[in-house]
Amino acid sequence: MSRPPICVPCRLAAIAAVIGGTAGLFAWTAGWLTPTRLDAPHIVNTFETNYGVHTGYRRNHAKGLCVEGEFDSNGNGASVSRAAVFAPGATPVIGRLAIPGSNPSAPDASIPVRSMALLFQLKDGEQWRTGMNSAPVFVVRTPKQFYQQLVASKPDPTTGKPDPAKLNAFFSANPETLPFRQWLKAHPPSSSFANTPFWGINAFIATNAEGKMQAVRWEMVPETPFEAESADQKHNPDFLADDLDTRLAQGPLRWHLVLAVAAPGDATSDATQQWPDSRQQIDAGTLVLRQATPQRAGACRDVNYDPTILPDGLKPSDDPLLAARSAAYSVSFNRRTREQAALAHEHGEAQ
């Protein structure tokens, strides 16, 4: 059977959508984009110009739902980190499952990447917040590259899609984007949040009780076997939420938190590159999700999943994207919460 012709503009548009969504708020600068000095509000403004503003919603990963459950630690993670979350026992979790992009009404099938964000509420009052994607690598290495791709990905007003020539020029000038593009081409979108693995992408520095410091990355590995998105699901714009509700009605969903430990010489500042599979892997416990609620009324609505909010025993690495994410998430959080407050005030006055 012959294969249908490949639509190169369509593929580029899909890549641009993923890049715009997953990278959309990762670009804060503190002189990096010289000679033009840009800050987080300016970058978020540019993102809004490209992809629009949906009042009261996150500027990225706008479409999602809240989930709640707990993390059951088996104690294995304590070998690399003294963080209380890795001590044996259960830690409450408030999470969010979403797709990238700024449109809260986007069809689920329009974006091949899924995301998981988690807030671990530790017993001593500390928190661990993490944002993960279903791709094991990020598309760019630096905020400067992000800004360049944001410019290249700007939709053409006449077509509503990025200019393929500009995207190709950006990719050619930035070979670091190749691992992400290769992964996107080789991996079909998942049929469910429940069967999706999620990677933290960035490296962090873990310190154990003896003071030993090691670089780590983490992944949430689902117990549910992977299945690709089906043709029928593509006709349902909200199939991910519908599927999750069906599965949770039958019982909790589980993922294993696996810590990958770097070897000497492994890069900690480049999120476009995976570490070898041969690196030490530690199954630190099980994430158990028990319920989901619409984000408008859910516990995750007002959470800023800043990945630099970490408990004692974990700290950011030298990856420049971490500071970028933190600053831009703050801008997005402040804008949407102000909008939500204004909408609530208007609703109150109308009553």
Can you characterise this structure?
The chain has 351 residues and is α+β, with helices and mostly antiparallel strands. Helices cover 28% and strands 23% of the residues. The chain has helices at residues 8-23, 40-51, 143-152, 164-173, 178-186, 239-250, 320-350; strands spanning 63-73, 89-99, 115-121, 127-133, 198-199, 204-207, 213-222, 253-261, 280-294, 314-316. Strands 1, 2, 3, 4, 5, 6, 7, 8, 9 and 10 form a ten-stranded antiparallel β-sheet that branches. The relative contact order is 0.19.
Secondary-structure blueprint:
Layout: H1 8-23, H2 40-51, E1 63-73, E2 89-99, E3 115-121, E4 127-133, H3 143-152, H4 164-173, H5 178-186, E5 198-199, E6 204-207, E7 213-222, H6 239-250, E8 253-261, E9 280-294, E10 314-316, H7 320-350
Helical percentage: 25-40%
CATH class group: Mainly Beta
Distance between the termini: 62 Å
**Structural class by helix and strand composition:** alpha+beta
Strand content: 15-25%
Oligomeric category: single chain
CATH topology: Catalase HpII,  Chain A, domain 1
Taking pLDDT < 50 over at least 5 consecutive residues as the criterion, the unreliable ranges are: 1-38
- The H-and-E topology, N to C, reads as HHEEEEHHHEEEHEEEH
